[in-house]
Every structure is written in structure tokens, then in C-alpha cells.
Amino acid sequence: MVAHEEFELSDTDHASRIDLMTKVFGVDAAERYFDGLPLAAKTTETYTALLHSYAAAKLIEKAEEFYKRIKGSNLPFTALMYNEMMTLYMSVGQLEKVSQVVEELKHQKVAPDIFTYNLWISSCAAALNIDKVRRILDEMSQDSGVNDDWMRYIKIVNIYVTAGHLVNAESSTAAVVEAEKKITQREWITYDFLVILYAGLGKKDKIDQIWKSLRMTNQKMTSRNFVCILSSYLMLGHLKEVGEIVDQWKQSTTTDFDISACNRLLDAISCLGLTEIANNFHMLLIERNCDPKHISE
């Protein structure tokens, strides 16, 4: 009995198994695994893991039904759950539903994170609702969780909105590319935002152009830049480019790594069955002394 208790699976273990089930056997198997869990194991982590499986597979009806079920569970949820739904709606072009999710997040008094704001802003920018973008930036600046990174994000995106870059995105790309040659490291978060914006619009050619120009600058790439471009290509389903970006990352001198973000990327790549790319990315993390808390086998 003691031995059994010593090996009792944690919430994180169950969530990892749901991810693995999705990758190996599909969403239906992950769903059955979740349904078979004891009530005590149906926690924030396991609910979010299955929601992620639905969202990644773009199973809108299942995701929405499960989202309602989650809200009725009375469990404490963070912004991550809401971000999953926002990402889903962005990926299928249902931009109007992104703001609805934000309103529900606020109603539940859940603190948004920078990814929540980024998705919200991106959805409004993609819909060319620039006034709404400005209002979100104002709200973001008043958020109790605001920090220096947020303020840099707000300031630079405001500059782009004021300059009309988002309104005239199609005609301004050439100017953006030229300007990027002179940018500083702190300003790069704006270009990450533009990459995410174009991903929401499905504009791969614009993403390619911005990324190419960023690589031509004298500034050192950060893990955030690589995470952003990889996430965008994954969202659009351009898997060949995912492998190319991982190779570029391996050749870079980047030493800073966001372990949490890299961990999510590794799981996403693995879940798509891209074994070789996942292994290359895993080796990159090991070579740079980055030890993910969970590696998908």
C-alpha cells in the first residue's frame, strides 16, 4: 500500500499523459483518459490539458462544450485556460469571440497576462478595430500587474497604431522592413507583435519578410523572437518552416531561454508527430543548458 502511494500520479503527471495520449492515439483517447480519472484528479491542470488538446486540433464544438463544463466546475483557473480559447478562435478566424472570452475572464476576476493582452490586441488589429486596440493599451497600462516589459510593449505598439502601420499594414511592410535595420533590442517586441498579427491574418508572406529582415539586423536574437516565429508557423501549419527556424536557432548565439515557453513549443511540435524536429529542438535545449520540466517522449 505504501509503495502504491509513493507512485501515485500527480496532477502534472495526468496532464502530461493527456498530452501524450493526444499525440499518440488522438484526442478521443485523451478524452477517455480524462473521463476515467477519479474526481480528485480532475483539476485545473488536467482540465486545461484536455482543453489544449481540443484547441490544438481546432475542434471548436468540443472545445466550447468543455469550456462550459470547466466554468461549471468551480475550480480556480488562471489566464492560461482563457488564452487557450482565444488562441483557438484566432486560429479559425472567429475574431469576434476573442473579446467575449476576455469579458468572461474579467467577470471571473481572473488576472490577464501579457499573452491574454497580446491575443486580444491581435484580434482587434486583425479586424482593423484600431480604436479598440488603443483602449486595450490604455487598460493594460492601468493593470496592477504591469511591469517594464509590459510598458515597453504598450509604448511601441502605441507608436505603430499612431503611425498607422496597423491600419495600412499591407502597404507599410516595406517601410517596416527598412526600419528594422536600425531597431534596438527593446523594440523587437513590436516586431514579435507584428508577426503574431500577420499570423492571425494568415499572411505567411508578410511573416517571412519580417523574419528575413530581422535576421539581417545587427541585434542579437532572443528566445522570445524564436518562440514567436515558431508559434506563428505552427499555428498556420507551415511545418517545413518550423524545422528551418529550429535549425536557425541552433546556429544562433542566443543564450537566454524561457523554459516554460520552450517546453510548450516542444510539446506542440511533438504532438504534431514531427519527431525529428522535436529531437533537434530537444538537443538545442540540452546544448544550451536549458532543462525543460517535461520532455515529451
List the helices and strands and how they pair.
Elements: H1 2-6, H2 11-25, H3 27-35, H4 44-56, H5 60-71, H6 79-91, H7 96-107, H8 114-126, H9 130-142, H10 148-163, H11 169-180, H12 188-201, H13 204-215, H14 223-236, H15 239-251, H16 259-271, H17 275-287
Helix pairs in contact: 2-3, 2-4, 3-4, 4-5, 4-6, 6-7, 6-8, 7-8, 8-9, 8-12, 9-10, 11-13, 12-13, 12-14, 14-15, 14-16, 15-17, 16-17
Describe it for me?
Belongs to the PPR family. P subfamily. This is Pentacotripeptide-repeat region of PRORP domain-containing protein. GO terms for molecular function: mRNA binding. Keywords: Repeat. Pfam families: PPR, PPR_3. This protein is an all-alpha fold and 297 residues long. It folds into three domains: 75 residues, Serine Threonine Protein Phosphatase 5, Tetratricopeptide repeat (Alpha Horseshoe), CATH 1.25.40; 142 residues, no CATH class; 76 residues. It is built from 17 helices and no strands. Helix 12 runs parallel beside helix 14. 36% of the residues are buried.
